[in-house]
Design a protein that fits this description.
Order of helices and strands: EHHEEEEHEEEEHEEEH
Strand content: 25-35%
CATH topology: Nucleoside Triphosphate Pyrophosphohydrolase
Number of domains: 1
Mean pLDDT: 82
Distance between the termini: 45 Å
Number of helices: 5
């Protein structure tokens, strides 16, 4: 049955959102960075992260039509038009190291209600993913566009529930952001140090089996990632993006 907060699959960790029904779930593997030398990335500054992202090249064609295989499979097999959206991975330096900004979506929204997400939303006509991510972050939580410096992009993905492609944009904010929430979109905004996300006890991978269109492995399963953060749980598309981001910046150089 649907997992309730009091029946969390992570003992001692509660969260306000519900996880979906799945046919079968099993433990997955360790984090991609578990076997890496933590001295390489445990105390990275935002500037050092920017340097590492330079080597991670993702085609973010300005017209938004070049995306990954998953998006192309949806368009080819389903004959559907995938709506384009973008999210902002906003980083800033602090006494606790580099932190990343997250939100909890409002409870009344149609899709992904009360789930943890990055600021972001649908692309307007003729708008690039970067322009969308910056605009939406300003509208949702008051992040000032002039305080941002874009430093890279991650692999676009698709969400099943909202039939959208998501283009992740990574940017550095000059100093700690001053937030101003739009309650129509966001219930909570907070930041988490990357050092917390890198802890082995924060990361969980599961293998799920579910009747869905998502590309799967030969046994029919697909990976689902989770991050346990104070007072909440990151999973789904946001956790997939976050996993790629942490994997990239933790690579040995």
């Amino acid at each position: 049955m649907t997992i309730e907060p009091t029946a969390s699959p992570f003992p001692g960790h509660e969260f306000p959102q519900r996880l979906p029904l799945v046919d079968r779930r099993e433990p997955g593997g360790p984090s991609p960075w578990k076997s890496r030398n933590s001295r390489e990335w445990s105390s990275l500054t935002a500037e050092q992260i920017a340097l590492r992202l330079r080597h991670h090249v993702v085609d973010t064609a300005k017209n938004g039509h070049v995306v990954n295989d998953e998006v192309e499979a949806y368009q080819r097999d389903g004959g559907e038009t995938i709506r384009q959206s973008a999210v902002l991975l906003c980083l800033f330096d602090s006494e606790d190291g580099v932190q990343i900004v997250l939100t909890r979506r409002a409870a009344h929204l149609q899709h992904h209600r009360q789930e943890v997400a990055f600021p972001g939303g649908r692309c307007e006509q003729l708008e690039t993913p970067t322009q969308t991510a910056v605009r939406e972050a300003n509208e949702e939580v008051g992040i000032a566009p002039e305080a941002l410096t874009t430093i890279g992009h991650l692999t676009p993905i698709v969400t099943m529930a909202s039939n959208s492609s998501i283009y992740p944009v990574v940017a550095i904010h000059a100093g700690e952001p001053a937030f101003s929430i739009d309650p129509n979109e966001v219930e909570r905004v907070f930041s988490v140090p990357l050092s917390h996300l890198f802890r082995e006890e924060s990361f969980v991978e599961e293998r799920w089996w579910r009747d869905s269109r998502r590309p799967a492995s030969p046994d029919g399963s697909f990976p689902i990632y989770f991050f346990k953060v104070p007072g909440d749980l990151v999973w789904g598309a946001t956790a997939r993006i976050l996993t790629e981001f942490l994997e990239v910046i933790s690579r040995e150089v």
